[in-house]
Amino acid sequence: MSAREERPSLSSRTTSLYDYALFRHGIEPDGRVPRRGYPLPDGPPEPSRADLTWQQAQAEVTDALSPLLADPDPVRAADAVHRRAADLAMPHRTLRAHTARLTLTDEAAARRTARQLTRTGTDAAAVGVGMALLVRLGEPEDVPCLKALGMLHGLADAASAALDPLDRQAAALLYIRHRDRRGELAPLTDAIATGDAEAVRSALLSLPDEDRALWLARRIAEAADLHGLLRARPQDAELLALTGRLLHRMADQLESRPDILDYRPARAVYETLVRHADRLPPTPEHRALLLSVALDLHSGPAVLLDWRPGRRRALLDALDGLLPAAAQEPVPGDREADWFRRNRHLPFARAGDGDRPRWEVVVVHRSPDSSAVETRILIDGVPLVPALFGKGRGHPPEYLIDSGRLRAAPEPREVQLCEAYCTEGCCGALYVTIRRDGDEVVWGGWRGVDVKGRPPREYRFDAATYDAEIERAEQDHSWCWPARRTARLISAGLRDRPELLGQWGLMAADISTHHREPHTTVMRFVFLAPDGAEDRHGRPLRLYFDWRLPDDGTAPEERAAAALERIERSDPKDFAQLQRGSSELAAALGYSWADGADQDP
């Protein structure tokens, strides 16, 4: 173990963690903080209580801490919190999460206690209580202490959360250091530490041109003060291109609340980018980038920013004037150009007045070989999914539009509009109930809404207008590319002829394209144990087979017809790859696993 990673035993537990952090940083030869932070001093191991439900843990924390936080004497209150935190014996993260939700009867007293805990606390659990309170009670004078505590292992997340309202750059630096497991952003954080703006610019422009390097886009922009760099260099073409990439990544809603909504200078940075976008060389990559930004401004989460009247429309008009007209026919072999051709018109269509609904199928573009498809639901120009649910994109058109789920009937029907990226069982999903009421279509009965405040109102649409929009969306396949069209044609063929898979004991689980391999049609089939055998959880034993068809330039109609013909005459289990399922069932039937397959015990 290196000297910087050693866990020293303090001769006295009266040394505060704040003082300890300052000491450890002070003796560092180069002043750099280890990625995982300095180890905490020796102490009791962090407790683990698997017996508590969320509600029980909240009740215990409330009973133990709420009376103490109203004590006007911060020294006495902090001493008591130390004892109670130890008695609770909860994981530190759990304790902090429930502390943050406490109802405070005297915020001034709680703030004094929080400061006493963070500045003199000797135990990570008690110090974490103080940091959790400073998330909502912190003031600028708390920044130095929080920055110091953030250098300790296990406290970076709590310090970053408390710093976020007070010092975004400091919070972002902590967040990056804690999350950058590959060390790809270390040159950037080192440059930021020097305070040299030119070094920061160079480090930014040296970031790998890969999506995984920009997954912390908002934190990168905040840590590097992207807004300040742009103000100083508004015509820097390289910096403008990077700005577009960062903004587009922030507007992505794949996994969580879009970061663009929490990036404070977002509107000003968009303005600067569009104002000087003519400085970008007219390459296919830059055209695709500007069109992606336009799509974000037209129907993505960026619409929800607090724009001044007319400003967002003005930015879209400016981008429309900068972008060249799209080719009328597909460009063979040029996927970037073909994506541009298919989507060039979409962000510049003007929405109608009133509560008219519109469904737009958007292919979210990251690179020629990475795309994701979502259905964006616009009401009065506002994207519904990011406005109501911050944990995933709208479902693809095959699920919402092609299936007829959005069509209205007299009988109410609940429709899932989107699902959390992790699964509904983990983080939920957004539902609406659709029904026809005379000459109106009603959207109401919302379920799974993930926003604070009042639930969304009931929407009523003119039925004729609604039906016409549904018809338009069902007939509009302009967004579709060959591999995706092949998948749609195969799906339609299997729906019309269920016996094709039925003869082999198979069902279609999913037929589509993957967002990381958009030019490969992927068919996933499910095979259930014919004897009805179940696993130890009472679920039927099953196997999942994937058949992949890379786009080879053949027309989708021919490709789909050939695939359906092969399924008709040959068992897909003999030529598709076994990817998931029961190892017991696979062994019994003599099937071998594909490389990297996920085998159930």
Q: How would you characterize the overall build of this protein?
A:
By secondary structure, the chain is of the alpha+beta class. 44% of the residues lie in helices and 16% in strands. It has a 5-stranded mixed sheet with strand order 8-9-10-11-12. Strands 4-5-6-7 form a 4-stranded antiparallel sheet. Strand 2 and strand 3 form a beta hairpin. Helix 16 (284-299) packs antiparallel against helix 17 and helix 16 packs parallel to helix 18. The longest helix is centred in the first third of the chain and has 16 residues, at 54-69. The radius of gyration is 28 Å and the shape is globular. Residues 1-12 have low confidence and may be disordered.
What are the defining features of this structure?
about 600 residues; alpha+beta; 12 strands; disordered N terminus; five-stranded mixed beta sheet; four-stranded antiparallel beta sheet; 26 helices
**Structural shape:** globular
* Order of adjacent strands in the largest pleated sheet: 8-9-10-11-12
Please outline the major beta sheet: 5 strands, mixed
Q: Helicity range of the residues?
A: 40-55%
User: Helix count?
Assistant: 26
Q: Radius of gyration in whole Å, from Cα?
A: 28 Å
| Number of beta strands | 12
Low-confidence stretches: 1-12
Terminal Cα separation, in Å? 37 Å
How would you classify the helix and strand content by structural class?
A: alpha+beta
Mean of residue pLDDT values: 89
User: How big a fraction of the residues is strand?
Assistant: 15-25%
Summary of the model, kept short:
Helices cover 44% and strands 16% of the residues.
